[in-house]
Specification:
- It is built from one helix and eight strands.
- With about 140 residues, it is α+β, with helices and mostly antiparallel strands.
- The protein has one domain (about 10-140): Thiol Ester Dehydrase, Chain A.
- The strands form two sheets. A six-stranded antiparallel sheet has the order 1-2-6-7-8-5, with helices on one face. Strands 3-4 form a two-stranded antiparallel sheet.
């Protein structure tokens, strides 16, 4: 089941084209989420037919934003502005080619005050694209 599509994703994330890197929300709860992004040839983060490293990191971060935005919107809670406070143990295994769908999974490890610690991993056809741990700061 798809909870959000490219046509409806902007209800949940602040990013807009040309830098939007989440097209679908497939699963979403307070503990975890799963998003999808179709790598398009004309995208600003695509070079030489592949999603660039900054695009891969931005996809991970926007997937976190999509989770928070979706949960806020669906529960009639005003969304909070979030910032990446830290990225730890980032590993990029390959750059996805144009035409592939990047599936990103977010798992919330812990929340303390305004900080959320998450694990993020992205895949194309079950092959790992990138993994990392992110600390997100939510502004009150």
């Amino acid at each position: 089941m798809t909870l959000a599509t490219k046509e409806t994703i902007f209800k949940y994330i602040p990013q807009r084209d040309p830098i939007c890197l989440v097209h679908n929300i497939y699963e979403c709860s307070y503990e975890a989420s799963k998003t999808g992004f179709l790598v398009e040839a004309h995208h600003i983060f695509v070079s030489d037919g592949k999603l660039t490293e900054p695009g891969i990191v931005e996809n991970l971060a926007q997937s976190v934003a999509a989770q928070a935005g979706y949960l806020s919107y669906e529960n009639n809670i005003p969304p909070k502005l979030g910032f990446i406070a830290n990225i730890k143990d980032l590993k990029i295994f390959f750059q996805p080619p144009v035409g592939s769908e990047v599936i990103t999974r977010i798992s919330v490890k812990t929340q303390v005050l305004n900080f959320t610690l998450i694990e993020a991993a992205s895949f194309v056809n079950d092959e790992p694209v990138a993994t990392c741990e992110m600390k997100i700061f939510l502004q009150e």
